[in-house]
UniProtKB/TrEMBL annotation:
Stated family: Belongs to the iron/ascorbate-dependent oxidoreductase family.
Keywords assigned: Iron, Metal-binding, Oxidoreductase
Gene3D superfamilies from the UniProt entry: B-lactam Antibiotic, Isopenicillin N Synthase, Chain
Keyword Metal-binding set for record: yes
InterPro entries: IPNS-like_FE2OG_OXY, IPNS-like_sf, Iron_ascorbate_oxido_reductase, Oxoglu/Fe-dep_dioxygenase_dom
Domain Fe2OG dioxygenase intervals: 97-203
Region entry Disordered, spans: 1-25
PROSITE patterns reported for this sequence: FE2OG_OXY (PS51471)
Full protein name: Fe2OG dioxygenase domain-containing protein
Molecular functions (GO terms): metal ion binding; oxidoreductase activity
The UniProt record lists the keyword Cytoplasm: no
Length: 244
């Protein structure tokens, strides 16, 4: 299947040139984009992207997406307060119409993957693209690893009833590096199929994100990162993350 049709088979997602040992239902599950709304910027992602899910799974997903959108907005308000920014810093043109992506990901047991297709990485090391990600992972499998400041990979151990919250690239740029995106990867060495649900909360699709003045002032006065149009960043990442 192509990414537009929504299911990625094991090995189709690629991180830094290497196939990832996971499968996912994902590309269909992001904010719908009306054709023409962002001109050429969003062309590869336009249109209705909903699959025909069995039973009432789409209703369930929609509820989940709404709840996690609300939760993400609350967390972003907390981030604004922590930075000394106005409470509405992430509303309006920045994230008032936040783009979101939901991925339902499955990591098979190694022995179940054809030997000639197998690698040892479920998802290669990367940072997420937007403001933040809320990961809901299986309660009893340690597989998500994050790199700490000493450069060691440590487990982000599942704590039942909680989400892992990753910081994404856009928050790094916006805060001029005060918030750093955490490098993470997934290695499923357990004898069980692992499932995770990742909700990515982003800026507006067409937002031009750059270090804001008061964060620059707190960090030496100079912008450490260039302005990024989120949609361009995403489309470029999506196009390089699939084997076309
Ligand atoms: O499966 C996980 O725990 C994390 C997945 C992930 O990092 C991603 O899809 O960006
Ligand atoms: Fe990630």
């Amino acid at each position: 299947m192509t990414p537009q049709e929504g299911h990625q088979r094991v090995g189709e997602n690629v991180t830094k040139g290497k196939p990832d040992m996971h499968e996912a239902i994902d590309s269909p599950c992001y904010s719908p984009i009306e054709p023409g709304r962002y001109g050429d910027l969003a062309k590869p992602m336009e249109g209705s992207n909903l699959l025909n899910y069995p039973s009432n799974f789409d209703v369930l997903l929609e509820n989940y997406i709404n709840l996690l959108g609300d939760l993400s907005r609350k967390i972003m308000k907390g981030v604004a307060l922590a930075l000394g920014a106005p409470l509405a810093a992430f509303e309006g043109g920045t994230a008032g119409d936040a783009f979101w992506v939901l991925r339902l990901i499955g990591y098979p047991v190694s022995a179940d993957i054809l030997q000639e297709e197998r690698t040892d990485i479920g998802c290669g090391a990367h940072t997420d693209y937007g403001f933040l990600t809320l990961v809901n992972q299986d309660d009893d499998i340690c597989a998500l690893e994050v790199r700490n400041q000493s450069g060691e990979w440590i487990y982000a151990k599942p704590v039942p009833g909680t989400f892992i919250c990753n910081i994404g690239d856009m928050l790094k740029v916006w805060s001029n590096g005060i918030y750093q995106p955490t490098l993470h990867r997934v290695v499923n060495n357990s004898p069980r199929y692992r499932v995770s649900v990742a909700f990515f909360y982003e800026s507006n699709f067409d937002a031009a994100v750059e270090p804001v003045e008061f964060c620059r002032e707190k960090t030496g006065g100079v912008a450490k990162y260039e302005k990024v149009v989120y949609g361009e960043h995403l489309v470029q990442k999506v196009l390089t993350n699939f084997v076309m």
